[in-house]
Write a structure and sequence with these properties.
It is globular and about 40 Å long. The protein has a single domain, classed as Alpha/Beta hydrolase fold, catalytic domain (Rossmann fold, 3-Layer(aba) Sandwich). Helix 4 links the parallel strand 8 and strand 9. By secondary structure, it is of the alpha/beta class.
Length: 228
Amino acid sequence: MARSPTPSFSYVHVFEPGTVPAAPPLLLLHGTGGNEHDLLRLGRTLSPGSALLSPRGDVNEGGALRFFSRIREGVFDPAEITRRTHALADFLQAAAGHYRLDLRRLVAIGFSNGANIAATVLLLRPECLGDAVLLRPMVVLDRPATAGSLAGRRVLLCHGSTDPLVPPEHRQRLAELFAAGGATISSQVTPASHALTPRDVAAAQAWLQGATAAPANPAPGPAPGGGR
């Protein structure tokens, strides 16, 4: 594991070089209260041999790190989200140049707040990501992708059927925002709350491998917690 010594990077982060050239590089984005180490195990589980880039959220909410702030639960400032999204996208471009990553192959694996910032990067700066696995996402910026901007991209949305933090209507609306840009959307609703389950991990593994369904008996996997 190596942390870049370059002081110009705007996000504290961890980078693990890939060992399998065919495996896509992964961008790991943690949930509220997490850090740059939280999703490393998940990344290794989902795509063994992939390069891993994991930034730390730079917003401190009462000691809990996030990628953008919130006015209150489920209420956000669009201007602040837009600013934070561009900041992360600029970091991705700098990191890609330094670590020699192909942004067209970079797959975001985001959980909760991390899933939400991954979603807004796709919507506002699609040149900075390839595909995305969004775990427990919600609509934080109700702005459809520009027509054609996500052509050829794939997005997996993993929701919990009893998630108290994500309104059910957000599931369809988020899919519509990506579909407006031409993305191919896959969606799974798991009988779960906000925390991840082995079924989510299995679905993400299958999707990354190009499969259309998760295994019947998904293997246990990490289940990070966190808020929007």
